[in-house]
Structure formats: C-alpha cells, structure tokens
Amino acid sequence: MSTVRIPPVLRETVGGSRSLAASGATVDEVLADLFANYPALRDRVTADGELSPFVNVYVNDRDVRYRDGLETPVGPDDTVILLPAMAGGAR
User: Fold this and answer.
1) Model confidence, pTM
2) In a structure prediction context, what are the per-residue pLDDT tens digits for the chain, which is 91 residues long?
3) What DSSP element (H or E) covers 58?
4) Which neighbouring-strand residues pair with 2?
5) Which residues contact 21 (CB under 8 A, 6 or more apart)?
C-alpha cells in the first residue's frame, strides 16, 4: 500500500489523520480506494466526479500533471500528496 499525505486543510475529512494507507497501481486507483473509505474527502476535492483543477497531486514530490496524470503509476513504497491550491490574502 502507498501512503497518502493529507494536508491540514483536509484532515477534518479523514478524522484528523496526517497520512493514510491506500491501495492501487495508479493515482486514480489510490484516490478511488481513499474516497471509498473517506467520502467526505471525495466531496472536498472533486467536482462533478472529477478531481478539482484546484487540487494538485504529487507522487514522490513530482507533479502528476507532468507525468501521466491520474494514470501515473504508484508503487507500494510511494507517497502521494494531495495539495489544494491556496489563494487570497489582503493587505
């Protein structure tokens, strides 16, 4: 099983966990396994059944957009990171 790191802003959807184990051979499969166990997480990072464009996904610190997207292979020792984009602020 791979490890999925959960950022602080999403931890409330997974019972406060910093990281979770998930199975799957691709990012898409890992996320499907994760979402099956934590549907509140799915609701926060997807829209209309698709991963939100405001959520960045990394496998071992490499952005999957520059690899094979959701079909990027994931091995049992890999770490997947979900990172929602942040914006805003005021002076």
Assistant:
1) 0.90
2) 999 999 999 999 999 999 999 999 999 999 999 999 999 999 999 988 888 988 999 999 999 999 999 999 999 999 999 999 876 667 6
3) strand 55-59
4) 22
5) 1, 2, 3, 4
Q: Look at residues 40, 35, 43 and name the one whose alpha carbon lies nearest to residue 80.
A: 35
- Tokens 């966990």 found at: 17
* Size of the chain, expressed as the number of residues it contains: 91
Assess contact for 59 and 67: CB atoms under 8 A: yes
Distance CA 21, CA 14 (A): 12
Tokens linked to 19: 């990281």
4 dihedral zone (left: phi>0; alpha: psi -120 to 50; beta): beta
Pair 6, 17: CB distance under 8 Å:
yes
Q: Which two tokens stand for residue 35?
A: 């979402």
In the structure encoding, which two tokens stand for residue 1, read together? 């099983």
